[in-house]
Amino acid sequence: MHRITRYLRLYFLIEAQYIKARMQYRADFIISSIGMFFSSLATLGIFWILFGSITELAGWNFMEMVFIYAFYMIAISPMQIIFDHFWQLRYHVTEGTFLKYYFRPLNMMFYYISEMFDLKGLTQLAAGIVLLVYASIQLNIQWTIARVMLLLASLFSASLVQIAVVVSASCAAFWVMNSWPVLSLAWKLREFSPYPMSIFDGAFRVLFTYVIPIGFVAFYPSQIFLRPEQVSPLAYASPLVGIGLFALAYRIWTLGVNSYTGTGS
Amino acid sequence: MKKYFAIIRGAFMVGMVYRLGFIFTILGNLVYLGVAYYLWTSIYETTNVMRGLTFNEAFLYIALGSAVFILLKTYSDWWISREIIDGNIIIDLIKPIDYQLMTLFTNLGFVLTNLIAITIPTALMLVLVFNVTIPYGAGTLLFPFSLIMAFVISYCFDYFTGLLAFYTESTWGLSITKDTIILVFSGALVPLQFFPEGMQKVLMVLPFQTMYHTPLMLFTRPDQPWEALAGMLLVQCGWALGLILLTRLFYLQAIKVLRISGG
Amino acid sequence: MSLIQIKDLNKHFNVLNRREGLGGAFLDLFSGDYNIVRAVDGVSFDIEAGEMIGYIGPNGAGKSTTIKMMTGILKPSSGAILVNGFPPHANRIRQAQIMGVVFGQRTQLWWDLPVIESFKILKDIYRVDQKTFDDHMGLFNELVGLKQLYKQQVRTLSLGQRMLCDITASFLHNPQVVFLDEPTIGLDISVKAKMRTVIKELNQTRNTTIILTTHDLGDVEALCRRIIIIDKGKVLFDGDVKKVNALFGAYRTLKVQVNDFDESTLKALAGQMIQHFGTNNGISISEVEKHWTDITIDQARTPLADVLSFVMTNFPVHDVRIVEISMENVVQKVYDGALS
Prior knowledge:
The complex is a heterotrimer of chains A (265), B (263) and C (340). By secondary structure, chain B is mainly alpha-helical. Chain B has 11 helices and 2 strands. Chain B has one domain. In chain B, helix 1 (2-17) crosses helix 6. The two termini of chain C are 29 Å apart. A 6-stranded mixed β-sheet of chain C has the order 5-6-7-3-8-9, with helices on both faces. In chain C, strands 11-12-10-13 form a 4-stranded antiparallel β-sheet, with helices on one face. Chain C has a 3-stranded antiparallel β-sheet with strand order 2-1-4. Chain C is globular. Chain C folds into 2 domains: 49-246, P-loop containing nucleotide triphosphate hydrolases (Rossmann fold, 3-Layer(aba) Sandwich), CATH 3.40.50.300; 250-324, Alpha-Beta Plaits. Chain C has helices at residues 21-30, 63-70, 92-97, 115-125, 130-144, 159-171, 189-206, 217-223, 241-248, 263-277, 304-314, 327-335, and strands at 4-17, 33-47, 52-56, 78-83, 99-103, 177-181, 209-213, 226-231, 234-240, 251-258, 283-289, 292-298, 317-324. At the A-B interface, helix 2, helix 8 and helix 9 of A face helix 2 and helix 8 of B.
């Protein structure tokens, strides 16, 4: 417990300074927030256009899709905001600058992620929250304290899934010279997570449910709130999937960190 | 001309080094095609023709769109802006070569690599795995030419975005915004026919549709009357020429920043 | 008990012999034939608290690998290594608390933050109390006038300023041992001198053990009493720096460029040198690059000026340079038995 409060305190200390320093680049913040806003809503825009010609997609109406999409936007935000430094892991590893993370008396993953805090990701989070509130009003979802708690827990575990996928993919850098394609593939797959998994069958459903379980980033957990009467058992497995995947990703990270020898001799 | 050929060759060689990248990109594209296949199957669940397109046409449009996307995705906006911010552009400027042509031909080298390593395998998958029927007609013959025009136009957008680095270092936001606008409004993600009528009219007078919608329609509807085909190509050529001129003018303007501040 | 104890330390790497072509790359994923590289090969030495050691050797000698094992990044293949009584790899976090590290040109400070904020964060990370912190910052302010840099962002510092800040940071938590890897590389002479003063001062006032790896023999000469020379993973020499200095301080290399140079010129040069200066002349000759001939001279035996005038009068010399002895030359001399 003492350790958690110490790390939290350190995190706020570092991030407060970091944000203060980044605020000098206000134009960059505004431009990249706009970019973030548009790119994170692109797929929803496509759904909106498609729903001009159809009323249901595999049994889901547009507003339900908005809810799933909003859930997705919130669930990927922690990855974007807190774990953003993982995008640069491959540079640190190949250029040897990764060495410095070994020298502090801190948990290495903590030290590594604390070096960056992605402000523009807050745009995505805010847009996601607004959309979620809007969709749940439109859908007339009844919120009780218990359901809100359940929502928070589901979002938490869903974000762990997303974090685990990106962390694992980034860690390829410890073993592969040019690891960008691995990360890029993980990024591409992520974009399919707000799709209703029920449109897939066979290999694809297995792939997105059990192999690279992006179905757990948004679709399965949001069923609990959209169709409580006909939830598939998978939806309730999502916290386990989130925690399990994160543990696995952390293990891969530890293996990578231990196998890293640094450049040069 | 010979020196520009050397540039293409150089970029091609660089591209071929990243073989693992191709395997993963093809893999990623295979997954994308699969997702698109299921998505469009779902969309066409209750009807055979929608917005004047059959399932086969719509899926061919989208699938081919993803292949064109990879072909045109050379990240030149990223490396041009990097060069400008790092100041390495000076080295290119003292060479006896036109900067726009040099970057264009470097890009062409990357495009050729993409074509051989990714686009052709993707097209093969399309026919072999997804069993798509390929229509033939006059448009099929015009398709390669239209693709080259699409490349020039796409390059102009990349070049313009890259040059903005003379004014701001916030290139991530600019590139991602440009990518999103092009993807959504060009027909790369959803055929333009699916857009609301009013929006379609606006989109048809904007240049974005010439990068995807034009070549994709030539390919999926090759049997259109020749006036229609020629009209589409003419619009495309017009945009290509116009954008080259505009970006050239913009370059002359932007380069002044370098002359004044010393980079 | 010594602060650092190293006994029969080995670190071997398996390096994959890569196959060619796409098929080869695919096969390499499953099996490959490996070469064993003995980066550190049976190294033993003890370091006492408060010592300042010059740990030197040419590129690829195994210096960094040893340092990485001492700091707990790498696990030894075999042999024992104890820092403050513990194997560093076993508990990285505990060991990091008693170590300070400066790695050449790569800063460990927060790139975007003002200098003072970096120090404040480090204060919390290492749990340094306010008084120790103030004393430490005060000392550095006295030594190098650090205060004027407090408000600057780390990214805007010059290389020399950044190195000073990094060194300040590495001593902040009063570590028992500090590893300095090429702390003066790329710095001009006045900053270099400042850096050496600071390091010496800290070693003396706080009794901090310092392990210095460097290419600059001048650093070692100015700071260390003991020197360890390593090459190909093995310790070549471990002893008093004076002994090394007495030998290499006197060596200079005369590089000459001779017109119409060929094999016979090299032979003639060597022959005439022996004729003129005798057999035990302390001169060795080699052609290291095209047109340039290196004449390494032990000034204790033959003055450099004599050799220079001899060469100038007897050969059609085009150009001349005089350089101090290089790390590679030192190592070669040690192999040749100069220190035994």
